[in-house]
Amino acid sequence: MHSRDDVQYAxxxxxxxxxxxRRIDTFGDTRFDFLMLSELMDSVGSxxxxxxxxxxxRPRIVRPDGLSDIEMxxxxxxxxxxxERLVAKMREAGHKLAFLQYGFRFARGxxxxxxxxxxxxxxxxxxxxxxxxxxxxxxxxIEGVDDAWEVSLFKxxxxxxxxxxxxxxxxxxxxxxx
Length: 178
Hints:
- The chain is an alpha+beta fold.
- The chain has helices at residues 4-13, 77-92, 120-134, 149-174; strands at 15-18, 30-39, 46-62, 99-106, 112-117, 139-143.
């Protein structure tokens, strides 16, 4: 488990160098290929290169009656009660409570790792050039933190949700689902 400082550091320093051309599909699952570069903290000039896949599950619409299905794992009972009171107040005020819920699947077994001796600048340039030549629309390249690489991957996931949400919302509205 990473400390709060580790998580904050990874979120602040992670950079998505290449964002996939495609977004999260509104009505189907979407797969992204990632390549993550991270310098080893205790070895100058050593970079860990991780490659793998992450799958975005089709976004779901969560409506007021479905809010009780939202998992609040890790929160105590008082937090759950505050959430339920907030939802009740919003309903009373006449707010339409519908939003998109995203889910992701990530299998650690699909991740491969390789240590490369290089400067980050040189390796970054080579990896980006190779990705441009291949032209994979689902490719992401991330520069992250080695010890908290999962947090760096999570930052990529959040950015994909942010880029995809307006398109997904429009698609749902166009079909009269939102």
